[in-house]
Design a protein that fits this description.
211 residues, elongated, single chain, 7 helices, 87% helix
Length: 211
Amino acid sequence: MRTHYMQQLSELEDLLGKMGGLIISGFKDAREAIASRSAESIRDATKVEGRTDVKLDEIDRLCSLLLLTQQPVASDMRFIVSVMNIVVDMERIGDQVRDIAETAGKCKSEIHVPELDEMAADCEFMIRGALESFVGRDLDRAEKIIARDDAVDTAFDKLKLKLSDWVKSGYDVEDLLNLLMIGKYLERIGDHATNIAEWTSYVVTGTKKPA
């Protein structure tokens, strides 16, 4: 019985890693969609939502099974509870990856905005780092991920000011609104990555410290 229990915990961690891999891969496609409006990148990024939803269902079922049929010790209980919360943020990142790709596909012009590049780079760093800090129980790395969210917020503030100025300069308003929405999706992704990193503290110490 104990061996089966350990195998289930290992399977849960494996599923989490696979879902994380889908998120990271999809976000890379979204970054490419922002940069190049590539039809292939847009198509690939929009697929991530469905794939992450499948993994979310698998993880939810396994967590419920563990809670109902096993008697997790305190540390395992914290892990299971953390995973159940983390996958919600991961699923929402998948939704926003899709939204970014679809919105990039609506842009009629190839306006380059450095602030979006900065936000996308920071978000990719945060997603990968948040997941790795959780799996590795690395509190120091989790703190660095949480701190990086300030850079995402600062870049978003700069983006809003720049796009406001561009409206006055005669740029296509619909395109500027699409760019603003992409920035908003990235800002939300930074928040979700922060949430994931915060669960590292809970799984290690039993206390979830807010950012």
